[in-house]
């Protein structure tokens, strides 16, 4: 079938909305008409080339929700008309990682930036002249309609607005899990969150829900500092130096119990600043990404070793998409998770590059593309 979607042809470059040909679903695949897709900074990292992809053209988008329009026989029992959220990280359910409650490290994820189906190397998407098109995370939610593996979708209740539900497919799960699962935040803790976008606003909410007494947001943009209070921040400051001092004031000079880095573009000095701001045995969760070729961190090894501090990497917040997508959406329905205020602006697909300009200009917590 014919669809439209946003692709990159080279890097650095710009997203281009073009006509595409889409295959019908095979067994254990479904076809989904997108209703909404979040605009995550990770997609822009592919546009700039900070995070390389396996081929070009490459169709972006990995934070979406929609309605199933075609469904082949599948082990999840998903049918036409079901509402689904795409999981940015697929889950096979039986590899070592899925079997040990680490679905975010599923072996299928090794192929999510390669482009083709991870089963046999064929392609679901082509240009109108027959050129294969790679799918980001195997899903490409910047397509009006997409065909995906059943391992990448989670069925949700039909009463949940899909423009809000899409956020849980990546940003909310990742930010929330960064604080709750990987930061090991406990009641009474003091937590710093560096960078208040989609991930940071979810990390703030996760820290407060876990019982943190002091949640300190750091962002140089005044609008984002003001927004941070909406998501549970007790303090909002412009610099990490201010945040570190506030953390010491609430911990008898010790420093933050945990710090989550969710800046738009990670630099090595961010990690060094974060490590200096946490207490002995404190945790720094590195959720943000930057240029993948960068090597080395300017951190004092003695502080890491002798203060028994922990540097923790993060993929998808170490969440379990099969369960956590619906768990987080149930919290939204119960008024325990604020998704509504995360959406600053909405865009049409043809305005996607303006949306990313707004993101980089600090105008959005999260932009969302709405499809017809």
From TrEMBL:
EC class of the enzyme, as a word: oxidoreductase
An annotated GO cellular component: cytosol
Membrane-spanning residues: none
InterPro entries for the chain: ADH-like_C, ADH-like_N, ADH_Zn_actinomycetes, ER, GroES-like_sf, NAD(P)-bd_dom_sf
Matches recorded under SMART domains: PKS_ER
Stated family: Belongs to the zinc-containing alcohol dehydrogenase family.
Descriptive protein name: alcohol dehydrogenase
Organism: Rhodococcus wratislaviensis NBRC 100605
């Amino acid at each position: 079938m014919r669809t439209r979607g946003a692709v990159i042809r080279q890097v650095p470059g710009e997203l281009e909305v073009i006509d595409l040909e889409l295959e019908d679903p095979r067994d254990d695949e479904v076809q989904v008409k997108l209703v909404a897709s979040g605009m995550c900074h990770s997609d822009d990292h592919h546009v700039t080339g900070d995070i390389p992809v396996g081929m070009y053209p490459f169709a972006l988008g990995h934070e979406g929700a929609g309605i199933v329009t075609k469904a082949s026989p599948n082990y999840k029992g998903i049918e036409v008309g079901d509402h689904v959220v795409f999981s940015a990280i697929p889950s096979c359910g039986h590899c070592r990682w899925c079997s040990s409650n680490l679905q975010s490290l599923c072996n299928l994820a090794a192929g999510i930036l390669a482009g083709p189906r991870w089963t046999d190397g064929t392609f679901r998407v082509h240009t109108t002249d027959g050129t294969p098109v790679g799918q980001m995370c195997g899903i490409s939610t910047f397509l009006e309609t997409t065909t995906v593996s059943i391992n990448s979708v989670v069925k949700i209740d039909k009463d949940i607005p899909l423009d809000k539900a899409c956020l849980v497919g990546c940003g909310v799960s990742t930010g929330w899990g960064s604080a709750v699962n990987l930061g090991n935040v406990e009641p009474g803790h003091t937590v710093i969150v560096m960078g208040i976008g989609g991930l940071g606003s979810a990390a703030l909410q996760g820290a407060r829900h876990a019982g943190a007494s002091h949640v300190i947001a750091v962002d140089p943009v005044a609008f984002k500092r003001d927004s941070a209070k909406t998501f549970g921040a007790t303090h909002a400051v412009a610099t990490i130096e201010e945040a570190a001092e506030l953390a010491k004031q609430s911990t008898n000079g010790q420093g933050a119990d945990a710090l989550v880095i969710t800046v738009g573009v990670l630099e090595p000095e961010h990690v060094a600043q974060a490590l200096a701001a946490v207490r002995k045995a404190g945790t720094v969760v590195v959720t943000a990404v930057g240029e993948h070729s960068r090597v080395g961190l300017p951190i004092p090894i003695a502080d890491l070793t002798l203060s028994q501090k922990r540097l923790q990497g993060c993929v998808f917040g170490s969440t379990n998409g099969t369960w956590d997508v619906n768990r987080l959406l149930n919290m939204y329905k119960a008024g325990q998770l604020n998704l509504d205020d995360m959406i600053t602006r909405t865009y049409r697909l043809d305005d996607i590059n303006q949306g990313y300009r707004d993101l980089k200009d600090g105008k959005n917590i999260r932009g969302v593309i709405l499809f017809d």
